[in-house]
Structure formats: C-alpha cells, structure tokens
Amino acid sequence: MNQPTPAIVAQSAVRRLPRIALLLLCAAYLLPGLVGRGPWKSADITAFGYMAELARSTEGIARWFDPMLLGLRPETPALIPYWIGALAIKIAPSWLNPDLAVRIAFAFLLWGTFTATWYAVYYLARTARAQPVAFAFGGEARPTDYARAIADGGLLALIACLGLAQLGHETTPALAQLFFASHLFYGVAALPYRRTGPVIALVVGTIGITLSGAPTVGLALAIGSVLYVAYERRLAARAESENIDHEDSGPGYTRGALYTMIGVTALAAVLVFGLKLPTWKITVIGGTLLGDVRGQAKLLLWFTWPVWPLAIWTLWRWRRQLTARHVALPFWFALMPLAATWTTDYSDRSLLLALPAFATLAAFALPTFRRSAAALIDWFNVLFFSGLAVLGWIYWIAMQTGAPPKPAASVARLVPGFVPELSPIAVALAVAATIAWCWLVRWRTGRHRAALWKTLVLPAGGTALCWMLLMTLWLPPIDYARSYMPQIHAVAERVGQPRCIAELALSRAHIAALRHHGNFNVQPLLLGTDCPWLLVSPDTIERLHTIIPFDQWRFAGTLRRPSSAADDLLLYQKITPQ
Fold first, then answer.
1. What's the whole-model pTM score?
2. DSSP symbols for 530-549
3. Which of 127, 191, 341, 378 has a CA between 20 and 30 Å from the CA of residue 510?
C-alpha cells in the first residue's frame, strides 16, 4: 500500500541552479590550498612520505604491494592511494613540486566525489516514492526537474559539511576512501536506470575502498546494498505474483543487477580475507565505544554540521517511507561509517565516508520545509558565516599591523616566531570572495521566486568563503603552524648537509618530513649506521642510556616545532676520537 509522501513541490520551485554558479562554487572550494603550502602534520606528510618512497623505489613491482618508509609499513595499509600519489609524482614535470603534484591528483578525487554524489542523489530522487504529491489540477514538479533540484541541494549540502574542509584537501587515504565510497553509492543508486556506468562505479568503488584502507566498511556497505536490492526484488516479485501495483513502480533492480552486485561483493570479500585486511584496520573494539562517548558525540555534531539536523528531519518526515530506496540506501551508507567511527582509532577519517550519505538525507529534507523554517536557517547562516568572516579579517589586520593589540597578541601566542608577509594576490582573492559572499547574501534575502535548493546555498557558500579566507589570508601562519618545515630548517642549520642522519624512535611523519623538506638520508640507529648526527624522540629519554653509549654521543640541543612542544626532537652529535 502506498504511503503518503511528505514532499509538496510545485514546478516553479525546481528551477535549475545555474551550472556556471555551481561550477564556480566547486572551484572556489577545491582550488584554495593547492599552492603555497607543504604537506601538513601528521597524516598528510606521512602519506606523502610513502608516496614519495614508492616513486623513488627501484625494487620493482613487489615494493608497490608492500610500501615502506625506512622499513616501516603504513598504519593504514592502503595501496591504491599510495599508487595514485606515486604515479602523480612520476608523471609530473620536473619543475612541479612533488607534493603539489600529489595535491592536484587528490583534488580530482574530491571533484569525482562531488560528481558521484550529485548523480547518486539525482537517481534516488527519480524513484516513485521520492516524488512529490501530485496536485489535483496539475502543476506539481516534473520528475526530472525535481530530481535535478534535489541533486543540486545534495551537492550543496556536501560542500557545506565542516568535516570535509581539511580532510578533503589533504593527500591521505581517507580522501581516496571517500572517492570510492561515493562511487559505490552512486553505482547502487543508478543501477535501475543505467547499466555500464553504474556497473563500472560498483566495481571501482567496492574494490577501490577495499584496497584503500577501509576494507571492513567497504565490505559492509556492499553486503548491505546486496541485501537491500534482494529485498526490493522480493517485493517486486510478490507484487507481480499477486497482480497488484508495486509501491515502487518504475525502474527497479533486475536479476542481472543483483547477480552483478553479488559477484563484486564476493570478489571484495576474497580480497579482504585473503589479504587479512580486517586485522590491519580494526585495532580497538569496545574501547572508544564504551569510553569517551562525549568526545565522539562532539565529533559527530561538528563534523557533520550543518547536515545532521536536516538528516534527522528527513528521517522523521519520511518515516512512512523508511524502506524506500531514497531513504534506506543513504541511511545504510551513513550507518556503517558511523559504526567504524566508534570501533576504530580513525574516528574523523571513518566519519568522512558518511558525508555523501548525510548530504543525501539532508537534500530530501528540502521539499518538506515550511517557508518560516527555511528563513530561520537562512538568517542563522548569514549571521554565523558573516561573523566568522569579520573575525577572520579583524585578526588578519591585527596580525599585519599589531592593532587591535589583543587579537595580535593571540595570533603571536599561537604561532610564535612567525613573521607575517603581505601577499597582494592572496588579499585580492580574499576580497573577491568576501564581495561574492555579500552578493550571495543580498540575492538570497531578496524577493524572488522560490527554488528548492536555496536553503543550502548560504551554508555551502559560507563554508567556501571561510575556506577561501583560511587558504589566502591565513595560509602562511597555518602552514607555519601545521608544517614540519620550520623544525626541519632548524635541523639543517645545526647539522648542515651530512652524508646521513641516524634516527631513534622518530614518528613516520618526522621521517617523511626529514626526507622531503631537508632531503636528508635518514637511517635507523639500530641498524648500526655510522652517521655523525642522531635525532631522538623524547619518548625514549628514560631508557636512552641503555640504547646509546653516552661516551660516544654528545647532546647538541632540543629542536622544537614552534607551535607544538609535543613534537620536540633531541639532537646528538657523535664524538670523534682525538
């Protein structure tokens, strides 16, 4: 029996969002942060270190299936992201910095995530149970136009997610996992309407996420999708046998589609258990689940803001259609990453995979909003993002001029030793972004015809504005604070360019930074190297006397990363016999 749909949408409300405006918004979100910075601590520089080692490797194809950084395997055994980065370094021209080449390649992954999410929402909105109420005298939104408007809203919701900003611009396996998860999502959503594209997306998404460091989540998503498709097939078969109209009348999953999904899932399972991938990924079960509940809740609230209230609203307003494809599939694709967030040590990076599904659920809240609720959301976003932009400009002016004194002192305390420089290009881009925001606010608060996606224009535009200001005005101090470059330069000033530097218990991030920023030949001390200098982690200080003979090494000083004393390095110089 058909359940009433809560969506009431007229044809006039599904105006198409201008493609040039959507493309410019995506570009304003993607491009800032590509140039003018180095890899950040600690996952960003660590992942880049493995990619650079692969690109330099001369050990043949076997090394590509076992990446190493000074004999250390990655904590996240993700093969495909490291392959993508290494290939980007190899094919990049000599004048292009290797880290910039990798960032460009991973920017295409984020663009692919945007594209897959848009099409996934579009095909889910095409289903019969997602359509708005039919009016007695016509005038309701046409299915294709309605689906396009919902898809525009879904993409805007994804851009608006706060958790996507930093992780979406780093070169870590998490971004590759997001890319493949979104393609798996698209493949399942579009399979009733298309064949070749969705099948390719299913294969690429399922196998890709399996070999990108999230095998358990990927396999769970694939199995859940198979079960849902089998459920829909069973409902359709029962309706056909009873000679009644199936409530999901319209394009459905064929038997071939089900078998294809089963085959892809079986192949993924063979890879997961054949390569023993679950033992790599899941390290703690129960510790975070029963422990810091408050911390996990805070992470969920800010990471998925502002889409989580809209997603909850969707589940409530569409509660009579919870088994419908446009609600059940995104709910499952959000639920599995949420479970991984609570059961693994990679909370924020696991939660990143849920953002396309959260954005999809948020998009289906749009046709159920009243005008007063939409106006409240708009004014909140105007005040929130305008306030952040004003604070960003005030603190930047204080950093450059020293006035007002309190903001200037706050900046100096956060990035001690940083000397600000004025970049005319960065200032021009920041001014242009601020003017564009003012125009967007004026347009949104003006009197014109309603559009279904308008409620999410300000959140997406405000997030893009804040990211643009951070990556223009604030990029130098952020890069100074989050990069290992100042610390590595301090090392170079003390030791020069020796034939090698020994290390003891350094993190993967520090090793990668020494290799990349300082071009040092780093060797493990325990392998019996004969290097004139030694860098030691302070964590070993209590047992250091049992590891190195102090009559052969002289303490030469502590090298700090300016913004964090937790990243200290202890420098020792080898005593040469007289």
1. 0.94
2. --SEEEE-GGGGGGGGGTS-
3. 341
